[in-house]
Amino acid sequence: MKVISVAGDRVAILLEGADTNQQYTVMEALLPPGGGPPPHLHHREDETFLVLAGEVTFYVGDTVTVLKKGGFIFAPREIPHHFRNTGTGEAMLLETAFPAGVETFFAAAGKPLPDRNAQPLEFTREDIANMIAIAPRFGIEILTKEKN
User: Fold this and answer.
1) Residue 40 Cα to chain centre, angstroms
2) Beta strands 46-53 and 72-75: pairing type?
């Protein structure tokens, strides 16, 4: 299992494309308070998110949805989206992307962590610039104007 700090969050790759004949990827994401990725869209993958703990606000297109434990949401490809931990403690998500491939972007954009107990690293300006620069190779656009 690969564990990566990406966008200030900790992502554990539970199943990667090599495990699923490239059909899907399953990841566990730990978001500190205020954590979550910048607004972006995928040209290749659809995503689902199941909130395992905490409170997360999802922005999918023009729709804003606040979810707590057990909440589930779909983020289709080609639709801008992002999410924020809007609770007071850590939030945990189970994320599925299909087809597989987004995990290779996370590995390229993030930094390896030793295990699932490690805390995510700070998301620096250099990390943001790198993420924006490499995202197109993976069919992803990082949207620089954040509404929320």
Assistant:
1) 10
2) antiparallel
Amino acid letter, 129: A
> Considering the entire predicted model, what is its pTM?
0.93
Structure tokens at 46: 């659809």
Q: Pairing state of beta strands 46-53 and 91-98?
A: antiparallel
Burial class (CB in 10 A: 0-12, 13-18, 19+), 124: exposed
Phi, psi for residue 106 in degrees, rounded to 5: -60, -40
Determine the straight-line distance between the first and last CA of the chain, rounded to whole angstroms: 33
What is the bridge-based pairing of β-strands 46-53 and 55-60? unpaired
Which are the contacts of 63, defined by CB distance < 8 A and separation ≥ 6? none
**Angle in degrees, CA 92, 28, 130, rounded to 5:** 100
Give the type of residue at 3.
Answer: V
pLDDT in tens, 78-126: 999 999 999 999 999 999 999 999 999 999 999 999 999 999 999 999 9
